[in-house]
Amino acid sequence: MTRADADSPGLDALTVFGDRISRVAGYLPEFTWTVSALPEGVRVELGGQITIEEAPALWKRVSELLEQLGGQTRVQIDNSRVEVIDGACMALLVHLRSELKARRVHCEFTGGSPAVRRIVDLYGGRRRPKKRRIRRPKNAVEQVGQATVEMFGETVAILDFLGQLVVATWNAFRHPSRINIRDAALTMERAGADAVPIVLLINFLIGFVMAYQSAVQLHAFGADIYVADLVGVSMTRELGPLMTAIIVCGRTGAAFAAELGTMKVAEEVDALRTLGFMPLQHLVMPRMLGLVLVAPFLTLLADAIGIAGGLVVAATVLNLSPSAYWVELTSAVKGWDVWSGTLKSMVFAAAIGMIACQQGLATSGGAEGVGRRTTSAVVSILFTLILLDAVFTLVFGALGL
Amino acid sequence: MTDALIRVEELTLGWGKHVLLSHVTFEVERGDVFVILGGSGCGKSTLLRHLIGLEEPMAGTISIGSTGVPELEGAAPEFGVMFQSGALFSSMTVGENVGFALQEWTDLPSEAINAIVKAKLALVGLEGSEDKLPAELSGGMKKRAAIARAMAFEPNLLFLDEPSAGLDPVSAAELDELIIALNRGLGLTVVMVTHELESIFKVGKHCIMLDKESKGIIAAGDPRELKETSKDPKVHQFFHREARVR
User: Fold this and answer.
1) pTM
2) Which CATH architecture has domain A3-122?
3) Helix/strand/coil for A50
4) Are B164 and B175 in contact (CB under 8 A)?
5) Domain-wise residue ranges, chain A
């Protein structure tokens, strides 16, 4: 019920009292909205104070009017009794006018104090409404198609980047003095030395959990000692390199993408080019080089601490002696297990560096673009790591390694 | 025959299938301060990026001196560029920013590079700022430092993208004075993109005005003359700061 309704004859004291309570509680609007008939249309007489607090109630009236309009061809919004109207509410009325225009219903604002008229003018209430461009929502097939095309585009972009990287690497071999050693060293410190604590912690827990889970099964068969084989081979061949790569992806890959993305949107990459530097040689290669050099050491640390995690379980849960664990471990884990893991880690590191830098340099659109590309970089890297790991497993298996 | 340093012929540029500017032709003479004007979104900065060589045109040619646009990467810079935000390398000090290309492309000892850096910073009024980080500089100082970096290789051509945008009137006026001093004192050819009227009249010798609707040049000449004589309503609106009738 609006104030206009409340002013109508036949209103009893209870209603007035109820209205006041409702108004105090914020249930009733402070403005009036009276609809009357016009030849071939309707007239909406507005009154009172129409401010942002009244916007929800006004929006409700606007929506109701739009729903209830039948064959009318004309709507007149009379502001004669409006005391105050603010921009937010005027925007809702202008929206009503645009909606009506889209339905080929003529709508006009009339009356109002000079102040109200100024607001109407300011919000374009007297300008001819522009024809709206109707955006058709995409159906599921279109969305899947678009996503496929975009994915294909991204793959082409990564392959293009890989090609440019090969050329840049060749140039770097020809002119090694131009390699940005400073950034490579900085990367080794940030991605390597600074990552040691988290690599140690995560891989210790991986070794610990794996040994703990397998201990129960192995104990049932009296095969306790084989926990050393299981932990040793799993850590060195698979989990050490893979978990380390995942940590490097989260720490360093995301940082590379965000850093280069920020440089791109701040035009620093363009500035670099105008000073004669190649972004690939100056920004990408040192980061990749730093990562590839540091990844094997992180992986060897991960292998060692994961095996130590298994030892803790073997000694405490299975009551195996450390020497028995060590003897079994050294008989099960061969040199190739360790070296294949470090080889994998270098390939993983190169993939992390390449994808992170490619995504960073493809950034556009400000802070939002940086966030989007950073997320995209992490997701793409994780997918690539798992894919590469599967390829390694198949190739090593086929070669009997 | 004019002494043109830059020749742009039938240049068409855009992205994807969208054409931003079509068949644009103009020349920039040596020693000129050439201003590219136009409203927002008309392609001023995109045209500048093509002149610099950061983008490939859809069609047409650009020549600087006797050749096309020089290869940007892999060689010492042949011209200086100041980007709209300054684009100083945030991880380096101001001094390192200015001396960065000198370290890469010359065999000068670090003492000599430091001396050049100090002189370049003094040239733009930033004496003693060598050890500051870009984050410690104001907007105007960043742009000055960016000009010092662009001037490191003694170019004869300087590109400036919206040099006075976002600056207070005093800083903007100081930057205009610096551009005039570089042009007159060193004979530097300056190509700048701006829509700051005060800068245009104070600094610009020649200009072209780009238009979004016609995707081309709608006026060319001395900006002061254009202001007085142009009959084109868009040119008139621009130079007289008249609002578009909505």
Assistant:
1) 0.79
2) 2-Layer Sandwich (3.30)
3) strand
4) yes
5) 3-122, 142-398
